[in-house]
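Review this fold:
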Amino acid sequence: MTRRFDSNDNPGEAAAPRTRVETVMDALRERMASRALQSGARVPSIRTMSDTLGVSKSTVVEAYDRLVAEGALVARRGAGFFVSGHAPPLALADLGPRPEREVDPLWLTRQSLDAGQEGLKPGCGWLPAAWLPEDGVRRALRAVARDPHAPLADYASPHGLPALRQQLAWRLAQHGVDATPAQIVLTDGGTHALDLVCRFLLEPGDTVLIDDPCYFNFQALLRAHRARIVSVPYTPSGPDLASFERVLAEHRPRLYVTNSAIHNPTGATLAPAIAHRLLKLAGEHDLLIVEDDIFADFEVEAAPRLAAFDGLSRVISIGSFSKTLSAAARCGFIAARADWIEPLIDLKLATSFGNGQLAASVVHHLLVDGTYRRHLEGMRARLADAMSETIRRLTQAGLDVWTRPRAGMFVWACLPDGLDAAEIARHALSEGVVLAPGNVFSAAQTAAGFLRFNVSQCNRPKVYDTLQRAMELTQARV
């Protein structure tokens, strides 16, 4: 049985294996937490639960009795067992089997954020602060503060700052995406954008398709929206189309969430032929697509965009400046078909009452005064050098790079000799190095031998020394 870590455990100590009774209890708690079993609902019969989980009826009886003692269930003579009271508060960790800490995406994020600027975190998903134009941001803040017409104390317009939306329309056009400023809504970052789109398009229980592997926070956010997640294998040129078509036919997903350019975590780029076939399948199966284009500005040459081929008909494009400019100045956007903009704005007003006007003003200033363009030129060159050096060092250490990215900051690498990335991450963390094991990104848990490396965070010798020691220690246990 899979071993896991509880939230209060020492990360270096494995929890005891779950008993059969606890497994039954966990299965029911998961259904209650996800609202698959609502308050007052009848739970599966003892016979059904026994057959479903492959345990004895006496095991199920004991599990149900324990849940009754906890107050989670009530027993009604002759009728069975029922969910009692109200649903518990939402806890993302309870939606699905609790993962080991090393492959718990939310725990990995916390470790990376808590590590601070001095911590070693080659597994994180952002650039070091020293790589970002902090001086330029300070100058922009001063310029905005000195502008007597700058809105420093008022709410933003529902759409967001008009001048920035005009700039974004021009920038989207460089990637072939035809969107007027009226088709763009500003948000407080990319996650806020995706959250609004999910609120707009999804109902609890809807099926959403994601890549495998994919950005781990897609999974967390979709679980928060009570979506059912299915995944399709990703290749160096895009999703596996045979699997994609099969999943569409079998599961009828409402939505597909993906990166087309600089795919996270693999660094792959969508091929034009794959993009055209994917959109044809989407049309045949009434599938909507969210194209997360947050890494667009890392590109040297623009990759194909689903939103460009589709004309924003069934594709929504979202983006942000958090990765390339400043994570502190939260500013993102949604570009969508014209008739979806007003309901999206209504949702934005209902849930956040707007977006950061000051952040939008700062971003606009940096775009128009040339600071952002100059920053991108230097950053791309620096990332290209870091990419080459990281791949060289990883290959030297015995890892196999899955594909060489054209740009960006991520390398997806396979460990040698069947080594388990979670074990490697556990050893590395004990030395203060935060790694990102593959199953953090895999809904199907099929990437146990992979690690994602952020090349901008891999420039310290200790990263590779720690990785080597962790591999040797793990190999010794095999």
Q: What stands out?
A: The longest strand covers residues 228-235.
